[in-house]
Each structure stands twice: as structure tokens, then as C-alpha cells.
Amino acid sequence: MRKARFDAQGSVIRWTEAPGSGPARVYVHGLGSASTVYHAHIAAHPDLAGRRTLFVDLPGHGISDRPAGFGYTLEDLARALAAALDEAGAEGAEIVAHSMGGAVAIALAHHRPDLVSRLVLTEANLDPDPPVKAGSSGIASYTEEKFVHGGGFEKVLLRVGPDWAATMRLADPLALHRAAIGLMRGTRPTMRRMLMDLTVDRTFLQGALTGALAGHDELVASGVRVETVPDAGHNVMFDNPAAFTRAVAAQL
């Protein structure tokens, strides 16, 4: 396990790492998740193995610290991720990121282009104010006090189902709520705009069961490859791991 400081109080972001050759490949999880749980089975596939691989847990999640004074905005999380990559000496990394992690990866590439050579985004948040059915919207519908201390966290754990709850219950409730609020607010420029303006290699992976991707043609026109993974919804890596692995490997 490795770590890097990301705030003035000495809080650390942690990751586990597998040795290998070539540029680092960095996996980043979504809201209320953990990188090894969502990506280790993908990274271990022969088509992807052999590369130096980092599984980073964002602040407030998994094995990383969860300081109460941290903002947990998308930009805050991107700066923490940058601290991890700086400490790891992982310039020009290939970033494979899911959901909220995809939005964080976009912000990272926008602010620290030296750290990113390629983005593979899976069902990433591209716009503020996600649909009401999204998990982040449900969390953000509570006040921070109600979510953290008034039973909101426990209610959400029951509502999201056992699989997501398995990792969400490992996240800090305050961090989870602030990150959800951050997703609702988005970034300026928006994650979509930043993604379209980037010059690195970019792929957006969409689960076929999710439905049509908003702004598909505009993304493609800007140079973003959009690929659809069959028989999969938002959690593509669990719904159809074989097809997801093939889709990721085809981009790297």
C-alpha cells in the first residue's frame, strides 16, 4: 500500500499497486465505491495484465483518509488524485475511470495534462444536475446534517441495494454527501466541455442498457470515441465483465 498527502493537515490518499512495464495504468472508482473492487478483476485479465497498475481510492472512500475539513468537490478530488500520481512518479498515465471517477479524471486531465496520456471513461458524469434516479441525486436530496446524523445514510444504504451498499458503507457519510453535492454542481467549465477540449486520447464506454448517450454526436465530433458495451448498465464491469474487458483492452 502506498500513500500521498493531499491537504495541509497531512491527510493521505492511498492506493495499491501491481508492478509492470510501460506507462502506469490507473483505475479510479465512482461515488461510494472502491477501485480494487470495481477493477481488479478487469486489470488481472491477460489482455490487460503486465502493466504497472494503480488502484486509487479517492479521499473519503475505501482505504484513503476522510478529513472532515475537506471539500470533496470534483476539483478537490482531482487535486488529491494528482498528489497520488505525483508521489508515484506516474506522469503520462492511462486513466480508466468509472462514473464519478470519470468526472474526476476529466478534471485531472484538464488541470494537470502532464499526468494523463489517455482517458478511458466508463459511464462518466459529464453534466451537472444528474437525473433524479441517479444515486448522487438521492444522496444530495438530504441536507448534510440529515444525511450524516439524521438517518439519511442508512436509508440510502437500504435503497441502493446490497452490491453498491457493500462498498458505500465503507465510505465516510460526510465525504459521500459532499461528493454527491459536488457531482450535482459539476465543474466550470463543465466536465463535458473539458472532455471535448482535451487533446489526449479519449474513449467513453457506455452500457447498452443505460440508453442513449446525451450529446453523442457532439462528443464524437470533438474526437471522443464512444463505444457501447452490450448487456450492461451503469456498472458495466460487473454486468458484462468479458465484454467490458475487451472494450477497455481495445483502447489501451
TrEMBL record:
Domain of life assignment: Bacteria
Domain named AB hydrolase-1: residues: 26-130
Keywords (A to Z) from UniProt: Hydrolase
GO MF term set: hydrolase activity
One of the record's GO cellular component terms: membrane
InterPro entries: AB_hydrolase_1 (IPR000073), AB_hydrolase_fold (IPR029058), AB_hydrolase_sf (IPR050266)
Protein's name according to its UniProt entry: Alpha/beta hydrolase
Annotated source species: Streptomyces beijiangensis
Taxonomic path: Bacteria, Bacillati, Actinomycetota, Actinomycetes, Kitasatosporales
